Amino acid sequence: MGLKIDQDYLRRLKKEAAAGDPHAQYELAQFYRNWPALKAAEWGAFLWFFRRIWKSKGYDRLYVSWLEKAAEHGHVVSMLELANLYQNGKYVEKDEAKASTYLLQAAEKGSSEALYLMGVRYENGIGVDANPSESIARYTQAAEMGHPDAQYLLGYKLLNGSGVDRDEKQGVAWLTRAAKQGHPSAIYEMGHCCRRGVGTEQNLEEAMMWYTLAARRWEPARRDLEDCYSEWFSLRQSSAHTDPWFLEAKGNGTDRRRSRFLREEFP
Questions:
Q1: Which domains does the chain have, with CATH numbers?
Q2: How many angstroms separate the CA atoms of 181 and 162, rounded?
Q3: Distances (CA, A) of 109 to 131, 214, 234
Q4: Residue 123 dihedral angles phi and psi, to the nearest 5°
Q5: Handedness of CA 258, 172, 187, 189 (dihedral sign)
Q6: For helices 45-72 and 76-88, what crossing angle results, to 10°?
Q7: Rounded to an integer, what distance in angstroms lies between the CA atom of residue 66 and that of residue 35?
Q8: What is the crossing angle of helices 184-196 and 168-180, to 10°?
Q9: Are the C-beta atoms of residues 64 and 92 closer than 8 Å to each other?
Q10: How far apart are CA 129 and CA 125, in angstroms?
Q11: pLDDT in tens, 102-146
């Protein structure tokens, strides 16, 4: 008959959830969310096909109900999950204001994800009145907690003076923190900053490093990498008579090997 549901565990989970344990309430919500798949595995998909018509909607309501109970007891993951449900209208009627309410509750509990998402909502007026200054404040809080998306957005806005006073140096500092966490857009943007000397000293070799990382994901970064290398090579050629590194590279074929690397790594 396939997978069997552990009834003893389920009874214990229900008892703990009824007693007000938010973790048990969340786990019970997940059980009801996955109930159709569990029953299909237990009874067989053919039999389940006929029973799900009159069973599933009731268990969907139980899923949401137990999530709400867990959220009432301060369970942050439940708050985030409910916000996602109301944002997308899944299992519940779409309600952006309610989604924002749950996100605000999670933000008050110190969730960096909720702070970041509320920054997006205040910026775009989703479920709340648009408030650019509040948006920047939320992005900053999330960024300080290490949220890479918030770090990237905050850095980009500071770099371009978008909704905040332009501060290129501070913008690059946030972009660097996001890039070191592997944020792809931040990595690419750092290539531009180092190449042009925006918010940091111009450094074509460092720019090539960032572009190389970004090029593994995006085609435009490959072209920027090739262009940056051409700029670097031209500068080295123009100062060849005073640049011992370039003379050594030219003599041992490093310049040719680097060109071959670009062709082979990014054909």
A1: 146-267 (1.25.40.10)
A2: 23
A3: 21, 35, 54
A4: -70, -40
A5: negative
A6: 120
A7: 14
A8: 140
A9: yes
A10: 5
A11: 999 999 999 999 999 999 999 999 999 999 999 999 999 999 999
Residue 150, token pair as written in the block: 């918030």
Q: What is the DSSP string of 206-246?
A: HHHHHHHHHHTT-HHHHHHHHHHHHHHHHHHHHTGGG-HHH
- DSSP assignment of 171-197 equals HHHHHHHHHHTT-HHHHHHHHHHHHHT
Question: What is the Cα 69 distance to its own chain's centre?
Answer: 27
Residues 6+ apart with CB under 8 A from 79: 71, 102, 103, 105, 106, 109, 111, 114
Assign residue 128 a region (left: φ > 0; alpha: ψ between -120 and 50; beta: otherwise): beta
What CA–CA distance (Å, rounded) separates 85 from 93? 9
The Cα–Cα gap between 202 and 187 comes to 16
Whose structure tokens read 């435009």?
220
Query: And the tokens for 166?
Result: 């332009």
**Plot region of 20 (φ>0 → left; ψ -120 to 50 → alpha; else → beta):** left
Name the CA radius of gyration of the chain, rounded: 27
| Model pTM above 0.70 | yes
- Mean pLDDT value of segment 69-78: 98
